[in-house]
Amino acid sequence: MGTASDKKLFDDNGLRLDGRSPGDLRPIRIETDVLNRADGSAFIEWGGNKIQVAVYGPREAYPRHMQNINQAFV
User: Fold this and answer.
1) Full-model pTM
2) What does the pLDDT look like over 22-54, one tens digit per residue?
3) Contact 19/27 with Cβ under 8 angstroms?
4) 27 vs 6, which has greater pLDDT?
5) Sheet holding 28-32: strands in order across?
6) With contact defined as beta carbons under 8 Å apart, do 31 and 42 qualify?
7) Domain map of the chain by residue range?
8) Which keywords appear in this protein's UniProt record, sorted alphabetically (predicted)?
């Protein structure tokens, strides 16, 4: 079995195996407001990666001493 260092990443012309040059990014797609019940949401597709995020709030922090109008909790 080969190691990661044995794997060929570029062809003889210096292009990646999917045809992109070394400086080219994978295609990216971003959609916003994809979830109805969230206050904010997005769907991101970048190459083979798919990400869906949602934001609900603002809500009060608990315990109360952690509340700060200049900060957010993730």
Assistant:
1) 0.62
2) 999 999 999 999 999 999 999 999 989 999 999
3) no
4) 27
5) 28-32, 40-46, 49-55
6) yes
7) 4-66
8) Exonuclease, Hydrolase, Nuclease
